[in-house]
């Protein structure tokens, strides 16, 4: 299930999740189609140094898109998982691996833009293909280390002894162990990169405003274009990832500590399910951003 827990395990609080059996398959099917189409086009373009980050971003988004039909089938079958335990672990792993690779590559693009605008002379060495490729390899490795415990926690199990389900976070008896990991994952995978992107953005805005007082030039136009890219990335980042991470953190903490009343738990649970496809949309919005900003 989207939360991994169709009925949140507290005796007095049963949460109706029937809405997700239509809502989530529709969202994920559209994401699958858009992700496949747009990212394939991006990957067909010629590589140059500044495009390497975008190519890596498109690769991880494409990988993610290919895992979605399994989730669509699971929701259409009303949380029944028919693909076996290994595929359950792999699909859940790919969801988060892609999510955090996307976030890290968007952070790289923002830092790249920040250096290009605020420290143009110092960036020449950082523009080399070797440095950029090395950074990308580091991102893949770090995100793999961050997300590989999902292989351990995600698994199939019987849902109230009726049928096999694919738990997203952890089965009930392991949930207490999962929560600290989930919180650390949110902090390192989202909140830290978000602060870095916001800082880069604020520095760029400051620099642009300082240069706008001088007579217009071709450098000026390039800087305006760069600020457009950074503003778009920041808004996209906040829209896709902030609601999901805030509601998922609340969901984990409330469920672990049995905090809040039933109505609060229901609200948080619904918000978490609704914001989940929003995070998935990023798998094709990144490619759309590439076309709209003409980002070279």
Description:
- It contains 8 helices and 2 strands; from the N terminus they run H-H-H-H-H-E-E-H-H-H.
- The protein is mostly helical and about 300 residues long.
- The chain has a single domain, classed as Rhopdopsin 7-helix transmembrane proteins, CATH 1.20.1070.
- It has a two-stranded antiparallel ribbon.
- The protein is elongated, with a radius of gyration of 21 Å.
- GO terms for molecular function: G protein-coupled receptor activity; oxysterol binding.
- InterPro entries: GP183-like (IPR047160), GPCR_Rhodpsn (IPR000276), GPCR_Rhodpsn_7TM (IPR017452).
Give keywords.
73% helix, oxysterol binding, GPCR_Rhodpsn, single chain, elongated, 8 helices, Rhopdopsin 7-helix transmembrane proteins, 296 residues, transducer, mainly alpha
Q: What percent of residues are in strands?
A: under 5%
Task: Walk across the major sheet and give the strand order.
Answer: 1-2
How many domains make up the coordinates? 1
Q: What is the tally of helical segments? A: 8
Q: What is the CATH top level name?
A: Mainly Alpha
**Model regions low in confidence, pLDDT < 50 over at least 5 residues:** 6-11
Structural class: mainly alpha
- What is the helix content? over 70%
> Assembly type of the shown chains?
single chain
How much is the average pLDDT?
84
* CATH superfamily caption: Rhodopsin 7-helix transmembrane proteins
Which term fits the overall shape? Answer: elongated
Order of helices and strands: HHHHHEEHHH
Sheet of most strands: 2 strands, antiparallel
Radius of gyration: 21 Å
Give a count of the beta strands, DSSP E runs of length 2 or more. Answer: 2
CATH architecture: Up-down Bundle
- Give me the CATH fold name: Rhopdopsin 7-helix transmembrane proteins
